[in-house]
Amino acid sequence: MIIDEFDRLQSTRDAELDTIKYLSDYNINCTVIIVGVAESLGDLVRNHESLRRLLTCIPLRRMRDDEFSELIESRLDRASLEIEGPAKLKILR
User: Fold this and answer.
1) DSSP for 24-56?
2) What is the enclosing helix (H) or strand (E) of 15?
3) What is the Cα–Cα distance from 70 to 76, expressed in whole angstroms?
4) Which of 7, 13, 33, 46 has the fewest CB atoms within 10 Å, measured from its CB?
5) pTM to 2 decimals?
6) 10-23: b or e for each residue (b if 16 or more CB lie within 10 Å)?
7) pLDDT score recorded for residue 74
8) Nearest to 48 by CA among 83, 72, 22, 66
9) DSSP 85
10) pLDDT for 17-54, tens place per residue?
């Protein structure tokens, strides 16, 4: 299960975290990936400190423009598509 934009959840965050805790408590074989922007794992799971022992934090840095450009080009090649410079710059920004 992948929960994207987790940092932006407001009304359902506690329910999502309770579900993860439930999965662990009842030994349900499930992988949960939480994607969100925060300074720390604690910031994402505030008020649910017991979950910190269940989770592994994998910090990712923001992609550099050259890396993002290479990613775009490789996917365009796979799809046999081309993109002009101004459009590519707009995507990068």
Assistant:
1) HHTT-----EE----SSHHHHTTT-GGGGGT--
2) helix 13-25
3) 10
4) 33
5) 0.61
6) eeebeebbebbeeb
7) 94
8) 22
9) H
10) 888 889 989 999 999 898 988 888 878 887 677 787 88
